[in-house]
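To the wet lab folks,

You asked to see what we're planning to order before we commit. Fair enough. Below is the target structure as tokens, and below that is the sequence we designed to fit it. If anything looks off to you, flag it before the synthesis order goes out.
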């Protein structure tokens, strides 16, 4: 019979197996060794056509998008959406087991379609089955500078990813993302990630959302998701979902704020998961010289795309 562990016991036993995993090259993309070791099962995962994928580069408001989708699918029922931590309600495809949260694949095996699935994989690594089965895919992106700041603080507190190191060096790491022999940022180049999905979004019917648009007008963006999912949700409920998914409400929601993740995995005393939730916090981190250097490189790396990113909204 399967042993049922208490939360505390599960965390205690997990202690030894959780550490800052090194990054391993998977088809040119640096991924945590736990993901690389399990790559065959992850890449062979076959979704049901009714399954929905939420894909993002880390720290763009993935959890925010997940919470909105879960509420839309449950007609704004806040109680139903507190049935379990967000990481259990919407499994993270490539996530290893971090007790008491089972691995993404283990969770998915226990769930019946229609499932909502989270991934950070760049488009070329998304399991083929999602495209073959024409699953709906929502992609959220965020301006590079705020994304970088959020990722920097996250890597300080996420004790399973490589240490970010000092701020100035981190900017350079992020700008490079990856290169042949050096594996720099987990999930690879931000630039390739956002451009990869943008290039395919019409062809593959991907809904491409921007964090800044969601901050500017959450109701408008929630309605875009509702239309994409063909859901008949009333105006009142949309307003309610906007309120339930505001930064402050989600920060206080134990099923969304990752307080369920044990300290050996996320040490929120270093930096909270729900940190600031703003557009333009990058101005508090970049010096004018760092900003100029970043912008010059950005213009080169982004010259072949027209994604309408905004670095401020006022
Ligand atoms: P900051 O670090 O800038 O505060 P992800 O879920 O992809 O890991 O993204 C986390 C980022 O999204 C964090 O950014 C977090 O504060 C922000 N975020 C989470 N929920 C949000 C919400 N409801 N409104 C605005 N920002 C939110």
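Sequence we intend to order:
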């Amino acid at each position: 019979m399967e042993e049922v562990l208490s939360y505390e016991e599960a965390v205690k036993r997990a202690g030894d197996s959780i550490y800052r995993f090194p990054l391993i090259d998977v088809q040119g993309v640096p991924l945590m060794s736990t993901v690389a070791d399990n790559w065959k099962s992850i890449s062979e995962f076959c979704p049901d056509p009714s399954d929905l994928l939420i894909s993002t580069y880390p720290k763009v408001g993935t959890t925010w998008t997940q919470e909105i989708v879960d509420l839309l699918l449950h007609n704004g029922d806040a109680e139903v959406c507190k049935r379990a931590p967000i990481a259990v309600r919407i499994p993270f495809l490539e996530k290893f087991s971090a007790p008491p949260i089972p691995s993404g694949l283990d969770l998915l095996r226990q769930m019946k379609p229609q499932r909502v699935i989270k991934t950070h994989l760049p488009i070329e690594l998304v399991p083929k089955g999602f495209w073959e089965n024409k699953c709906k895919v929502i992609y959220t992106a965020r301006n590079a500078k705020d994304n970088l700041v959020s990722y920097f603080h996250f890597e300080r507190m996420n004790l399973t990813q490589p240490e970010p190191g000092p701020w100035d060096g981190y900017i350079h790491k992020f700008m490079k993302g990856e290169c042949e022999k050096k594996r720099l940022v987990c999930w690879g180049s931000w630039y390739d990630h956002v451009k990869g999905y943008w290039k395919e979004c019409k062809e593959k019917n991907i809904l491409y959302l921007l964090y800044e648009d969601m901050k500017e007008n959450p109701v408008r963006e929630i309605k875009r998701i509702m239309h994409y999912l063909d859901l008949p949700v009333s105006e009142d409920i949309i307003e309610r979902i906007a309120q339930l998914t505001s930064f402050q409400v989600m920060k206080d929601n134990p099923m969304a704020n990752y307080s369920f993740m044990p300290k050996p995995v996320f040490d929120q005393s270093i930096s909270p998961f729900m940190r600031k939730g703003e557009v333009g916090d990058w101005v508090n981190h970049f010096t004018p010289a760092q900003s100029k250097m970043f912008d010059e490189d950005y213009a080169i790396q982004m010259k072949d795309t027209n994604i309408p990113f905004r670095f401020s909204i006022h």
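Structural context that might help your review: Residues 56, 58-64, 146, 150, 153, 245-247, 250, 274-277, 281 surround adenosine-3'-5'-diphosphate (CB under 6 Å). The CA atoms of residues 71 and 77 lie 6 Å apart.

Thanks,
Computational group
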